[in-house]
Amino acid sequence: MSSPILTLTVNPALDRIISVDRLVFEDRAYIESITEAAGGRGINAARVLTSFGAQAVAITTSGNETGRKFEDQLQVDTFAKEFVKIGSSIRINLTISDRQGLSIKLNELGPSLSAAEQSQLIRATEKLLPGASWLMLCGSLPPDVDPHFYAKLIKAATKQKVETLLDTDGDALLHGMEGKPTIVKPNQSEAERLLNTTLITRSQQIDAVKRIRTIGAKAVVLSLGSRGVMAGTSSEGMLEVIPPPVDSRCPIGAGDAMSAAIVWSLSRGNSFSEALRWGVAAGTASSKLPGITLANRTQTEEIYPQIQINRIVI
User: Fold this and answer.
1) Distance between CA atoms of 74 and 89, rounded to whole angstroms?
2) Which of 12, 118, 148, 208 could bond 40 through an S-S bridge, CB–CB 3.0 to 4.6 Å?
3) How many CA atoms lie within 13 A of 281 on its CB side?
4) Is 79 helix (H, G, I), strand (E, B) or coil?
5) How far apart are CA 181 and CA 172, in angstroms?
6) Tens of pLDDT along 265-287?
């Protein structure tokens, strides 16, 4: 049995997905359907890992009535769950998507977690580290949570020889890198906020990857949406990964699929370039699907041969 991959979602959500006929500024849209699903970056990653055949454990918070609905929605998922109960309700996130693939995402900030609840979450994660292969730290931290929260867990994982992937934003990203994660995976907007700059040209993206590595990450995977990935690694240098052009229907969740596929591939002993190829294939395959639907291994394998990798000489 392979070692489990842990995903941590400190700020999960009950995702309410509203499908409409068309999104037009200052005009009405007609609702065609409303669905609810348990959401959060780590939850999405656990789904993809499971569909790829990996053993995943999703660690997350749950509280009050929204938390009960969230747990009910998770019953359909076969991966293992570790719930840390909190006193407040977890958040509700709204996604409004139309038939053309346009989406608006409205996220609540999330509940405050007491110092005791934060400690409980750290203990629940540390308890599962022995024997795990990876810890994926996914998504935002709720208000009032210590911005060094992820760094503490990365250091605890490193002590147990568990690899780490950090996928977050803002202060949680900046301070999380103090723990020196194995991989940090910002998207373009997150990297621009981190570096306080705009990343338009290829040379700006290469420079951003270099700068982020100096902050504290061993490897950087800069996600550029439909343009693929710019990555910097100690083993293989700077890599550019380019997906084929596809009709994107809903890019939401594609980054989570990418993170999961990268970790899945590395956990199997593959090279970093091979893992990036799987990651970009999974993200691209997910973006072709409607709503917050994540690609499985079969759908990812269809895209995989079309992924192009360039080694950049600096």
Assistant:
1) 16
2) 12
3) 25
4) coil
5) 13
6) 999 999 999 999 999 999 999 98
- Check residue 1 and give its pLDDT: 58
Distance CA 42, CA 313 (A): 34
What confidence tens digit (pLDDT) does each residue in 57-71 have?
A: 999 999 999 999 999
Please tell me the CATH superfamily of domain 5-312, with its number: Ribokinase (3.40.1190.20)
**Structure token digits, residue 224:** 């550029």
Asked if pLDDT for residue 144 goes beyond 70, the answer is: yes
Distances (CA, A) of 5 to 247, 285, 291: 31, 22, 26
Rounded to 5°, the CA angle 156-64-47 comes to: 55
With a threshold of 0.85, does the pTM exceed it?
yes
User: Domain segments of the chain: what residues?
Assistant: 5-312
**For residues 36 and 70, what is the distance between their CA atoms, to the nearest angstrom?**
9
Q: Count CA atoms within 13 Å of residue 278 on its CB side.
A: 21
9-49 residue pLDDT tens: 999 999 998 989 999 889 999 999 998 889 999 999 999 99
